[in-house]
Specification:
Layout (H helix, E strand, L loop, with lengths): L7 E5 L13 E4 H4 L4 H15 L8 E6 L5 H14 L4 E9 L2 H10 L4 E5 L11 E8 L7 H11 L4 E5 L11 E5 L2 E6 L3 H10 L2 H9 L4 E4 L5 H12 L7 E2 L20 H7 L7 E5 L6 E5 L2 E3 L1 H10 L13 E5 L5 H9 L2 E5 L7 H5 L5 E4 L3 E4 L7 H15 L3 H12 L1 E12 L1 H13 L6 E2 L2 E8 L2 E2 L6 E2 L4 E5 L4 E6 L7 E11 L9 H4 L1 H10 L2 H5 L6 E2 L1
Parallel strand pairs: 3-4, 3-5, 4-9, 10-11, 10-12, 15-16, 15-17
Antiparallel strand pairs: 1-7, 2-6, 5-6, 8-9, 12-13, 13-14, 17-18, 19-26, 19-27, 20-21, 21-24, 22-23, 24-25, 25-26
The chain binds alpha-D-glucose-1-phosphate-6-vanadate and cobalt (II) ion.
Cobalt (II) ion binds next to loops.
Length: 551
């Protein structure tokens, strides 16, 4: 069908309200994206901005792929028609429309494309009633910066026409190899190969394979999302993990009806297994688009903030990072466990707003080697996205090199650096107006000098950030309340939801005394949690103070 004299046509259209990307791309209900012209409008808005800047259109190469959720394949055909009609020379597409977010970043960089469109709403549920999403990544492989996404949004508000091919030609996404869409070349690639090759260059694969040969056991829960094929190929195929190590490995359009968010609530089956008698040595899970990871040892959960700190502290044991650590970065609400590692090693350490797009300049400038977020995101300068399977391989590499259990590695780390007790409490599905009013209230309080659970507050601000590389600014990024003893509360609203508002409370407290490191986080933070709920009058405002998700 493709390549048979499809004419470029201009379709007139009217703007849709609210095509404004959030923390990570434009996310809406599937039904919103299915409206005639909705996707086309947004994609054309992106392409118009890119063409104006000389980053898209004639002569350029675009990578396209997604997490396989419902509407993925249709959206890809639509995007390919628009890319062809806007003069792109070439599109590189994952077979069956599949590319995990980190793999898309890897392909953009490795094949020197000019950018990519990634179709995902990450951990948000999929299926006809679920969510869909789209984001643009630049030539360096990372998410578009805020100034770029603002430009996309502005363009979407004035759009009057889009360009596409008539006759609705389609590309056979199931067959790898070169084909065409109109005058544009289309290369359908193995979605795993480039990524798997990159992992080979970073980790001690022989060391990890040795671990499995000696009987090390693992379960990887792919949650019926995009990481399945990657994990099967690398863990079972390359490293020799027992067949069946990867469970829920088949990507499904609705993720099997689940919520592909790797945390203790949504990956409960894995968490329960790891706390049971029959636990394997190591457990891990990843999210819808493969950029998040949860890591557990037998009987222990590794908090993502600790995971970043432990990997940074052990980076010298990983071949791809040996002798080249320059600095670390973490999103503002992420615990300051990694800061302590950086201070000891003399590395740069940056606190950035929530969202991976804020790490890009630091990674590009070589000022940061590893970075992470409390929301189960860990990564490095190997791509420009967080990378779930990368984190799992990094842990396996460290376990192999140290010949210790996850529990031993964690307790050793805390003994060396102290433990930062940490927890995030989410309140989902809140009334957006009431949630906004709460934020206004917290912002307006004058807490400095007053006590929070008995200890004076020394800092109370609304976080703003100036990028040390390009000077760009971001403000209103969340309220920080810090006590004299270093304990901290952060309050912010989610920017990835599609319904109502989600309030996130981030709580942390530092504990140097190693005799107290065995405590549970909720217990260790109990005073701070109580004081926070009272301070925010959660019960009064929302009728309940019980979080929907605790991690
Ligand atoms: C959440 C996380 C944030 C992460 C973002 C995208 O954003 O808190 O750390 O970068 O999701 O992750 P928010 O605005 O809802 O708190 V992913 O894996 O959903 O692309
Ligand atoms: Co994700």
């Amino acid at each position: 069908m493709a390549g048979t004299g499809n004419q470029i046509v201009e379709v007139s259209t009217k703007p849709f309200v609210g095509q404004k990307p959030g923390t990570s791309g434009l996310r809406k209900k599937v039904a919103v994206f299915q409206q005639p012209h909705y996707l086309e409008n947004f994609v054309q808005s992106v392409l118009d901005v890119l063409i104006d800047r000389g980053e898209g259109g004639p002569g350029k190469t675009l990578v396209v792929g997604g997490d396989g959720r419902f509407f993925n394949r249709q959206a890809i055909q639509t995007i390919l028609r628009l890319a062809a009609a806007n003069g792109y020379a070439k599109a590189i597409v994952g077979r069956d429309g599949i590319l995990s977010t980190p793999a898309a970043s890897c392909v953009i960089r490795g094949r020197k494309a000019d950018g990519g469109l990634i179709l995902s709403a990450s951990h948000n549920p999929g299926g006809p009633e679920g969510d869909f999403g789209i984001k643009y990544n630049v030539a360096a492989g990372g998410p578009a910066t805020e100034s770029l996404t603002n430009a996309f949004h502005a363009r979407s508000e004035t759009i009057e026409r889009y360009r596409t091919l008539d006759g609705k030609p389609e590309v056979d996404l199931g067959r790898e190899g070169l084909t065409t869409m109109g005058a544009m070349a289309v290369d359908v690639i193995d979605p795993v190969a480039d990524y798997a090759a990159l992992m080979e260059t970073l980790f001690d694969m022989e060391g990890i394979a040795g671990l499995f040969r000696e009987g090390f056991t693992m379960r990887f829960d792919a949650m019926h999302a995009v990481t399945g094929p990657y994990a099967v190929k690398i863990l079972e195929g390359r490293l020799g993990a027992a067949p069946g190590t990867v469970v829920n490995g088949m990507p499904l359009e609705d993720f099997g009806g689940g919520h592909p968010d790797p945390n203790l609530t949504y990956a409960k089956e894995l968490a329960d297994l790891m706390m049971s008698e029959s636990a394997p040595d190591f457990g891990a899970a990843s999210d819808g688009d493969g950029d998040r990871n949860m890591v557990l040892g037998r009987g222990v959960f590794v908090n993502p903030s600790d995971s970043l700190a432990v990997l940074a502290a052990n980076a010298e044991l990983i071949p791809g990072y040996r002798g080249r650590m320059t600095g670390v970065a973490r999103s503002m609400p992420t615990s300051r466990a990694v800061d302590r590692v950086a201070a000891k090693r003399g590395w740069e350490c940056h606190e950035t707003p929530t969202g991976w797009k804020y790490f890009g300049t630091l990674l590009d400038a070589g000022r940061v080697t590893l970075c992470g977020e409390e929301s189960f995101g860990t990564g490095s300068d190997h791509v420009r996205e967080k990378d779930g399977l990368w984190a799992v391989l990094a842990w396996l590499n460290v376990i192999a090199a140290r010949a210790q259990t996850v529990e031993q590695i964690l307790f050793d780390h805390w003994a060396n650096y102290g433990r930062t007790f940490y927890s995030r409490h989410d309140y989902e599905g809140l009334d957006a107006e009431k949630a906004g009013a709460l934020m206004d209230h917290v912002r307006s309080l004058d807490l400095k000098g007053r006590a929070l659970a008995g200890v004076p507050v020394v800092l109370h601000d609304d976080f703003s950030y100036v990028d040390p590389v390009d000077g760009s600014r971001a403000s209103g990024q969340g309220i920080r309340i810090e006590r004299e003893d270093g304990a901290r509360l952060v309050v912010r609203l989610s920017g990835t939801g599609t319904e109502g508002a989600t309030l996130r409370l981030y709580l942390e407290r530092y504990e140097p005394d190693s005799t107290k490191h065995g405590q549970g986080a909720q217990e260790a933070l109990a005073d701070l949690i109580r004081a926070t709920r009272d301070l925010l009058s959660l019960e009064e405002r929302f009728g309940s103070e019980t979080p929907t998700v605790i991690t």
